[in-house]
Amino acid sequence: MAATHWIPARLRATRALTPDIRLLEIEPSGPVAPVPPGSHLGVAVMIGERPDTRSYSLLDSGADGLYRIAVKRLPDSRGGSAYMHGLEPGARLSISGPRNHFGLTPGRPGYLLVAGGIGITPLHAMALALHGAGSPFRLLYAARTRQDLALADGLRARIGDRLETVTDEAGGRIDLAAAIAGLPPGGEAYVCGPYGMMEAARRAWAESGRPAQGLRFETFGTGGRHAAEAFTVRIPRLAREIVVPRNQTMLEALEAAGVGMIHDCRRGECGLCTVKILDADGTVDHRDVFFSDAQKAANAHLCTCVSRVVGGGITIDTADRAG
């Protein structure tokens, strides 16, 4: 994995979109080349006294020389969103990228964009790019309440009725099967949202019989089937036993304990941080979109950057080379 290149930047402005979602405009020290939709920015943060990195999807191409991100303060935050919400205009930042693991394929006959909550952020950039290119697309945007549709009004002003919104409070629900059926042959779907939404999209896409490569995901890696709780990781080869706190990922805990790990996305997408499961006396909560349902059911491996264990601990082997 290539070393991360950091550049200085300044927080130019902030604006509350909702009580828990904040828009931040970041001005890098050098010129900004327009970035493709789906790109994300790395931001250096402080979690207590510990430096760390968080990734945030860019809301647009940055063609005006600014990077825009929207950050939701999460109740189960590991500290990154709280740090970002505490920043004031003028704050000095270190940023990396942009990088793109969620690229938009050009030239398709149709596009379906499906966003849940703060998952709207990468799809916001995609919708603007597709609209600008005159490409056929629909953006379906779901949230718990009308207030949670943080970017809906601005988007509707720009893309019109290509945006469709639904909320839980109004009893709305995205009909994924119908939305997928409405795509022309060769069309693609891009989904970003909670774990349950992505699993539902995966099932609906498979049932439609469309090629698997036509469905693309991005996840913010915060949700699973179970609430987060502390658990213990045992590594017999290294004679180590490590406690993973509720507000820390397994990858972070392993790294903090000096276990050599390989990783990239930190969002359960690339699969680089996977470890072999030797035994589990708790329930493995697979939160990634890297493994298939069958692979998750086999419980042979897990993505340490997002997946957890509830009701017990886990015994693993790693690719650690430091011994």
Automatic annotation (TrEMBL):
<dbReference type="InterPro" id="IPR001433">
    <property type="entry name" value="OxRdtase_FAD/NAD-bd"/>
</dbReference>
<dbReference type="InterPro" id="IPR001041">
    <property type="entry name" value="2Fe-2S_ferredoxin-type"/>
</dbReference>
<dbReference type="InterPro" id="IPR017938">
    <property type="entry name" value="Riboflavin_synthase-like_b-brl"/>
</dbReference>
<dbReference type="GO" id="GO:0051537">
    <property type="term" value="F:2 iron, 2 sulfur cluster binding"/>
</dbReference>
<dbReference type="Pfam" id="PF00175">
    <property type="entry name" value="NAD_binding_1"/>
</dbReference>
<feature type="domain" description="FAD-binding FR-type">
    <location>
        <begin position="4"/>
        <end position="105"/>
    </location>
</feature>
<dbReference type="InterPro" id="IPR039261">
    <property type="entry name" value="FNR_nucleotide-bd"/>
</dbReference>
<dbReference type="GO" id="GO:0016491">
    <property type="term" value="F:oxidoreductase activity"/>
</dbReference>
<dbReference type="InterPro" id="IPR008333">
    <property type="entry name" value="Cbr1-like_FAD-bd_dom"/>
</dbReference>
<dbReference type="InterPro" id="IPR006058">
    <property type="entry name" value="2Fe2S_fd_BS"/>
</dbReference>
<dbReference type="InterPro" id="IPR012675">
    <property type="entry name" value="Beta-grasp_dom_sf"/>
</dbReference>
<dbReference type="InterPro" id="IPR050415">
    <property type="entry name" value="MRET"/>
</dbReference>
<protein>
    <submittedName>
        <fullName>Oxidoreductase</fullName>
    </submittedName>
</protein>
<dbReference type="InterPro" id="IPR036010">
    <property type="entry name" value="2Fe-2S_ferredoxin-like_sf"/>
</dbReference>
<dbReference type="InterPro" id="IPR017927">
    <property type="entry name" value="FAD-bd_FR_type"/>
</dbReference>
<feature type="domain" description="2Fe-2S ferredoxin-type">
    <location>
        <begin position="229"/>
        <end position="322"/>
    </location>
</feature>
<dbReference type="Pfam" id="PF00111">
    <property type="entry name" value="Fer2"/>
</dbReference>
<dbReference type="Pfam" id="PF00970">
    <property type="entry name" value="FAD_binding_6"/>
</dbReference>
